[in-house]
Design goal:
single chain; about 1000 residues; alpha/beta; Arc Repressor Mutant, subunit A; Rossmann fold; 4-stranded mixed beta sheet; 46 helices; flat; BTAD
Length: about 1000
């Protein structure tokens, strides 16, 4: 198990080994975790925590809040027994492996040597949880600051005594930042500045202390301090005038964020190679990186420094060499060509020549580079260009966008769209996100750049809990492109971050700079106009057609959607290569094929060009047809040996599929409407495996509504009605399922063999839920006899096995589950194999054969984890727990059911959540027959009554018996009180209750 590392000093962070844990960390969650860690010597009474955290609420509400918060804390931590909780106390498990920065800091403060004290100071990366303002946090924060002040005071003294004055100065400065009223530290700082010959530093130290004392205390510095000031001011030698520096590269006007590895890599490349080209998307920061790398390389490798030549203003290629001559201030001789003058000037020099913005004058830049490489052996060239120079010996360095901020609490989606982030949180810029995102994003370079540039135009701007989600959203939406982020930050003068985030759909109008910027960087539109104008007509056609792909795409997809008139046959590959050379399309490695993508801003721009060319509807129809063909193949592949491959393929294409379906559900064209219905039907298995049933339901309903009244091929709406019926069953709505089935089966010829079988599978489930087991058996038996599709036969066999179990016929169930398993093995259907394994475990357990039952159950859990399906994992864990419970292993059952409940609730599967909770209540009663077990049973009973979901007969009998034992074990009043409280719990509260140990 990886070591859990927790940072409470400065930026709050949780790491599982080297992997950051980005679960939503609310201020309350941080506070609870910190309190338990700082009081880890003994368990903390729940009553104390409830009063401490919620002093202004009722005791019952405070305890409910604490249960919910404890549940959230367990979700934030990696799997493991880190917390020990019972009905009275909560504590940190002293046996759990942990590295805590506060503990490391406190231990290091005990050192007496400089190295140990420096380690202590290094551990203190910031104040304790600076975003929290609770009184107990403030007291702990002050205690740790006092420890730091003492360590800094001792460190400065030891370093000064050892003659390490520069390091002592650093320690004294940090101590005074921590405590500006510390007169002893001020005296030391004056003395060290004087010894360094810095009279101005002596004066600054004293005047700073005097100013703070007058402002905060209303007194003057002590007489001894003032005397020391006059002594050290007169003792310090006068400063020497520094030597004038040689002018070289232009000084950067701003800070460079997140490019340290790039600067080092490029500096090393230009030291080794004669020609290095930085290429990448317009606005990605090639110029700024080139200047930083040149500055880093020139002192060690180029005795004559570095020179920057800006080629952006040039129009003609033959102006490149004269521009270089002017930038170098090389002497010109009448009658000689500029190239000769340039070569003569550079021939004996060791110099780095930086040629910036070569893409529009490639011929001229190439001529200059070839002349220099041929006749000037000491000159190296660092070029920036949106297009590769394609010269011999060229080393290309792709400049990538800045790293993007993570998303606390899971990925967000635009509010009003198809899905929301799980749980509540701050709603900013149309997104749902956890309120404490500041600590998670503060160190991200994209965010740092935004904050820095925003503060330049609005000096009071800072990252806060209120604006951090919007800032992170902006940086992610702009894909870490520095120019776009800078332009967005410049709008802080006029708009809040929330309004900037909301307006990013019209980014080209929003993101504009003033006239002092270079022409090609004044607006985001200008950046893209500049690149677009460099393309051939055919390259422009392919680029604008590729814009319909929302995510990555394959070559086959590009040829299918972006090819065709007026492009010559087979031209797409070479045109795509050209777009990659122009840094407008990026390539990336997929699992089984090379994939490509457009940066989002390029995509928006190209969509505008697509609409302007009048091609949007035609190309979107091609995209939908491509997606329909993909979905047709995916339906059967997902039930065969290639399931894992096809899951990855569909994962990579999800965003594009959604774009195609969004257009198709609104298109006036009947062909598009029919294709949309077919796609939502064919992808049913994909969406359910990925836990996206709510999205699939909304999309199916929308597509059916859009198709109403149209004269469509009958197969399309019939297939969609079958899918809608299956989804209704998942959402425990058998009435809606029956209505959709009636529509689907109105014309039996409209459905192929597989869809007919699935329709009857759902029909049988409607009867099964109504407890008409004989009808369900008859429906499924008839469908099994009729279908020729193997995976459908496996599904129907599984149905029959379950009804036989309900009818208390385990031998018949065993036979059909074994047949299902054989079919699944033959065709490679992992879904059917999973259900067969799970049910074989259940039936063998019923038949009193526990060893193979447990083996089947464990194999089912492993297979579900391979498929990475939350629904299947939860289902398998629940059944594995049933076997553990039947074998008397309540602790194992409880552990498995906690995970099953969390997963089932995560995907909002009500039936599975209830079933797991019911089993959890049974395990809780076995472990500790107390009020908490009563509350769990009561909550499940209330939910089953509300949703009209009857329990399994075997579970019902076990539940009745357990409740009777609890009623006998507890005083009647205590049982009634716990039952009443459990019945009033909402979903979040009951899941939080389940998380408690």
């Amino acid at each position: 198990m990886a070591l859990l590392t927790i940072h409470l000093l400065g930026t709050f962070r949780l790491l599982d080994g080297d992997r950051p844990l980005t679960t939503r960390h609310t201020p309350r969650l941080q506070a609870l975790l910190a309190y338990l860690l700082l009081h880890r010597a003994a368990p903390v009474p729940r009553a104390r925590l409830a009063v401490l955290f919620w002093p202004d609420t009722t005791d019952a509400q405070a305890r409910t809040n604490l249960r919910n918060l404890l549940h959230a804390l367990r979700e934030a931590l990696p799997p493991g027994d880190y917390l020990l909780a019972d009905t009275q106390t909560i504590g940190w498990n002293p046996a759990a492996a942990l590295r805590l920065d506060v503990a490391d800091f406190e231990a290091a403060c005990a050192a007496a040597d400089p190295a140990g004290l420096q380690a202590a100071v290094a551990h203190y990366s910031g104040d304790l949880l600076p975003e929290l303002y609770d009184d107990w946090v403030a007291a702990e924060r002050d205690r740790l600051r006092a420890l730091l002040a003492d360590a800094l005071q001792r460190l400065a003294a030891r370093l000064e005594a050892d003659g390490r004055h520069a390091e002592a100065l650093t320690a004294a400065h940090r101590l005074l930042r921590l405590d500006p009223l510390h007169e002893e530290a001020t005296v030391r700082l004056m003395r060290l500045n004087a010894l360094a010959g810095d009279r101005a530093g002596v004066r600054r130290a004293y005047e700073s202390l005097a100013s703070v004392l007058r402002l905060e205390v209303g007194v003057e510095p002590a007489a001894d301090t003032t005397a020391a000031y006059h002594h050290w001011l007169s003792a310090a030698p006068a400063p020497r005038r520094p030597a004038a520096a040689r002018a070289a590269l232009p000084l950067p006007a701003d800070t460079l964020f997140g490019r340290e590895p790039d600067v080092a890599a490029v500096a090393a490349l230009v030291a080794r190679h004669r020609l290095v080209t930085l290429t990448g998307y317009g606005g990605v920061g090639k110029t700024r990186l080139a200047l930083a790398a040149a500055a880093a390389a020139q002192s060690d490798h180029f005795a004559d420094g570095a020179c920057w030549v800006d080629l952006a203003p040039l129009i003609a290629a033959d102006a490149v060499i004269p521009a270089a001559v002017a930038a170098l201030n090389a002497p010109e001789q009448a009658g000689r060509a500029p190239s000769v003058n340039l070569v003569d000037f550079l021939a004996a020099r060791r110099l780095l020549l930086v040629l910036d913005n070569c893409e529009h004058v490639l011929v001229g830049a190439a001529a200059l580079i070839e002349a220099v490489r041929r006749d000037c052996p000491g000159v190296h060239v660092l070029a920036t260009s949106r297009v590769r120079l394609r010269l011999p010996g060229e080393h290309v360095y792709m400049v990538e966008p800045l790293a993007l901020p993570g998303v606390a609490g899971g990925e967000w989606r635009v509010a009003g769209g198809e899905e929301q982030g799980a749980g509540g949180g701050l709603r900013v810029a149309g997104v749902v996100w956890g309120a404490s995102a500041v600590a998670a994003v503060r160190e991200n370079p994209s965010v740092q750049l935004f904050v820095d540039r925003a503060a330049a135009v609005w000096p009071t701007f800072a990252l806060t809990p209120a604006n951090a989600p919007a800032v992170a959203h902006i940086c992610r939406r702009l894909e870490g492109i520095p120019l776009a982020i800078e332009l967005a930050a410049g709008r802080v003068r006029l708009l809040s971050t929330r309004h900037i985030a909301e307006r990013l759909d019209s980014a080209f109008d929003l993101l504009a700079a003033g006239p002092t910027q270079p022409r090609q960087h004044r607006t985001l539109r200008g950046v893209l106009d500049w690149s677009y104008d460099l393309l051939s007509a055919d390259e422009k056609t392919v680029l604008r057609r590729l814009a319909v792909f929302a995510g990555s795409f394959s070559l086959a997809a590009a040829e299918s959607v972006a090819g065709g008139d007026p492009l010559p046959p087979g031209a797409t590959l070479e045109l795509l290569a050209g777009l990659i050379d122009h840094s407008l399309v990026a390539g990336e490695e997929g699992d089984d094929e090379r994939r490509y993508r457009l940066h989002e801003m390029t995509r928006q721009y190209a969509l505008e060009q697509l609409a302007a060319a009048g091609e949007r509807e035609v190309v979107m129809a091609r995209l939908l047809a491509y997606v329909a063909a993909l979905a047709r193949r995916a339906r059967d592949e997902l039930r065969g040996e290639q399931q894992a491959v096809w899951l990855r393929r569909l994962d990579a294409k999800t965003a594009t599929i959604e774009v195609a379906l969004e257009w198709g559900s609104r298109a006036a064209d009947d062909v598009a409407a029919a294709d949309t219905l077919r796609v939502v039907a064919e992808l049913y298995f994909y969406w359910t495996l990925r836990g996206r049933q709510p999205y699939a339901t909304r999309l199916t309903e929308r597509a059916l509504a859009a198709a109403a009244g149209r004269d469509l091929p009958p197969d399309a709406p019939a297939q969609a009605h079958v899918t809608a019926a299956a989804l209704s069953i998942i959402h425990t709505d058998p009435t809606a399922a029956a209505d959709h089935l009636a529509a689907a089966l109105a014309d039996p010829a409209a459905l192929d063999d597989a869809y007919t079988a699935v329709a009857h599978h759902v029909r049988g489930l409607v009867a099964y839920i109504a407890r008409d087991h004989a009808a369900a058996e008859a429906i499924w038996r008839a469908a099994l006899d009729a279908t020729q599709t193997d995976w459908c036969r496996a599904t129907l066999l599984d149905d029959l096995g379950n009804v036989y179990m309900r009818l208390d016929q385990p031998e018949r169930a065993l036979a059909v589950f074994q047949e299902e398993r054989a079919i699944a093995a033959r065709i490679g259907d992992r879904i059917s194999r999973f259900y067969a394994l799970t049910n074989l475990g259940i039936v063998l357990g019923r038949l009193g054969d526990p060893a193979p039952a447990r083996a089947y159950a464990a194999e089912a859990v492993a297979l579900a984890r391979q498929m990475d399906s939350a629904r299947l994992i939860a289902y398998a864990l629940r059944n594995q727990a049933r076997l553990a419970l039947a074998g008397g292993d309540a602790p194992t059952a409880y552990r498995l059911l906690r995970e099953a409940t969390a997963l089932a609730w995560e995907i909002r599967n009500r039936d599975l959540t209830l079933s797991a909770l019911e089993q959890l209540a049974l395990a809780a009663e076995r472990l500790r027959p107390d009020a908490r077990a009563v509350m769990l049973f009561a909550a499940v009973a209330a939910a089953r009554e509300s949703f009209r979901l009857p329990p399994h007969p075997a579970d019902e009998a076990a539940t009745t018996a357990a409740r009777a034992r609890l009623a006998a074990a507890l005083p009647p009043a205590a049982f009634a009180r716990a039952w009443d409280e459990g019945q009033r719990l909402d979903w979040v509260e009951v899941v939080a209750l389940a998380e408690e140990e």
